Amino acid sequence: MNQRTDAPPAGPEPVDNLERPDRPDRPDDPRHPGTPAAPDRLRSQLLDTTGPLLLAPDAVLLPEGPADGYGVVVDGGVFRAVGPLAELRRTHPGLAPVRLAGHLLMPGFVDAHHHLTQSFGSALAFGEPSEIFRRVWVPLENALDEESAYVAAKLAALEALRGGFTTVADAGTRAPVDVDVIASAARDAGLRCVLGLVCNDAPAEDPARTSAAPVAEATPGGSTVAERAEKHLARYAGDPLVHPSLAISIPEAATERTLRHTARLAAEAGAVVQIHVNEHLAGVERSLVRHGLRPLEHLHRIGALGPQLLAAHATLLTPRELTLLADTGTAVSYNPVASAWKGNAVAPAVALAERGIRFGLGTDGTRGDGFRLADAAEFAQRLAYGLATGDSSCGAGWTWLEQATRGGADALGLGARTGTIAAGRAADFLLVDTETPELALSWDLPWELVRRGNRDQISAVFVGGRLRLWQGAPVGWDGRALVRRAGELARTVRERAEVRRAHPTSTTARARALTAPGRSAER
Fold it and tell me: Potential cystine with 163: which of 5, 288, 369, 496 (Cβ 3.0-4.6 Å)?
């Protein structure tokens, strides 16, 4: 990163340096005076939330690009000021800058599509054909109890934080527990969460069904889906980390009445409705048989499209459906790793960007790694669309970084709260070590973050102005103990879940391949 050459004015000197034991300070640089401090000392200072902090990294990643010599003032969980360090030192003379040598301060990643309670079975989806939710996720989540649902969600939250995510959108759990269990797990981990409440009210999902059956108006507890949705939106209305959302598994899982009603409720509350839309060919064909329309077209006909809808996946889009998305302001979660691992197609994200369609990037619970997600987003577009058209840029790097942060926040209805380093926004950010072999020789930092960034370069993760992760470990709670407990519970849950896999494990597949007729055992 190119650094400014103007020295900051006199004032309190930087009191700390974010230094690793093997990285000496740069005392000959007049722009960054100060002496190195032990990592523990800096950690303690960053943990201090009793007053404002003036952070002085090498650069701050703004929407227009990296700004060398910038700093931020964090106070009360938000960015109070963002600008050139010299200016911040003049306007905040009582604050001693916390020097973050060799680091970039950037927005935290936003995961626009996740299933937090599916963490116990991530590898069960490997090698499986599409629509695995019927064979894997429904039985697995139904086997969770309160403790296992909490631990599964907190395990996913820990993985997300380690991967640089400061916000995730949970698309609703099928676990037979109060969704507050999931909210508590995210909150306890220190992760911002858009928490979906499943509002399915059509008969049990049946892929062979070709006509609508009677509506299931009430839940087992006696309250209607509409009442539960209203209570959920009110329950978390003032929560600093948990933001309520409504969710419907797929359009065919809810009646037209509920699809319309949830859209209206969410729009009035400033929330989103999360629905898996046009993800798999089988689902598109069922909709055509039942309604004569594709799923997205069906949602448009009944009035469910709009800025409040977050359409997950949307991999199978016609030109007309792209127009519907653009005209209605509907948002999309582009989930490239999910497409590669278990999908039928790759969403046309470059076309979404060109048409001005709102979208973010989602993991779908595949792996919680923000840098690898951004890389996969660009890589999938290049393979699926760029190679055939000679488009060697496919978003020019910055597109994927922006959609993984600011674009994702906007898609979740949180654009005014997070996703950007700007005054008034929540202080959800990462400190990324740029003095690594992958990033030290920097010529185009946004591209380099997309293609060469790794989660092991993330020194710290802040959510709501608080240090939540330090050098890969959670702050204030025992991550290793959680992982151990997750291992114990996952075995029990897997044993009682009626999971049906179409493919064997990799070791079994290897054994079968080596003993197949006509194949030599010697390699």
Answer: 369
Contacts of residues 84-87 at CB distance under 8 Å and 24 or more positions apart, as own/partner, are 84/4, 85/8, 85/56, 86/6, 86/8, 86/9
Residues 386 and 448 in one domain: no
Confidence band (pLDDT; 50, 70, 90) for 68? very high
CA-to-CA distance for 437 and 428, rounded, in angstroms?
A: 26
pLDDT of the residue at 498: 81
Work out the average pLDDT over 101-119: 97
Tokens 């629509």 correspond to 131
Domain shared by 38 and 9, yes or no: yes
Q: pLDDT digits over 133-148, tens only?
A: 778 888 889 889 999 9
Average of per-residue pLDDT across 393-404? 96
Q: Give the per-residue pLDDT at 225.
A: 93
Q: pLDDT per residue over 485-502, tens digit each?
A: 999 999 998 888 787 777
Mean pLDDT of the chain: 88
Between the two ends of the chain, the Cα-to-Cα distance in Å is 48
Q: Are residues 434 and 370 in the same domain?
A: no
Per-residue confidence (pLDDT) for residue 516, from 0 to 100: 82
- Say if residue 387 is in the same domain as residue 473: no
For residue 520, being part of any structural domain is answered with no
Per residue, what are the HEC states of 46-79?
A: HHCCCCCEEEEEEEEEECCEEEECEEEEEECCEE
Q: Which of 418, 455, 385 is closest to 164 using CA atoms? A: 455
User: Which residue, among 20, 164, 162, 3, has the nearest Cα to 70 in the 3D structure?
Assistant: 3
CATH number of the domain enclosing 238: 3.20.20.140
Distance CA 111, CA 157 (A): 11
Determine the residue type at 250: I
Maximum Cα interatomic distance, the chain, rounded to a whole number of Å: 79
- Residues of the domain holding 181: 109-414
Q: Is 32 left (phi over 0), alpha (psi -120 to 50) or beta?
A: beta
Rg (CA), the chain: 24
Within-domain flag for 497? no
CA distance 411 to 313: 13
Assigned token pair, 187: 């909150």
- Out of 68-72, 191-195, 253-257, 501-505, least confident range: 501-505
CA distance 447 to 372: 13
**Calpha distance 108→428 (Å, rounded):** 6
DSSP 12: S
Residue 11, strand partner residues: none
Residues listed for the chain: 523
Distances (CA, A) of 165 to 150, 346, 463, 480: 19, 22, 9, 19
Give Cα 250 to chain centroid, integer Å.
Answer: 20
Q: Are residues 151 and 227 in the same domain?
A: yes
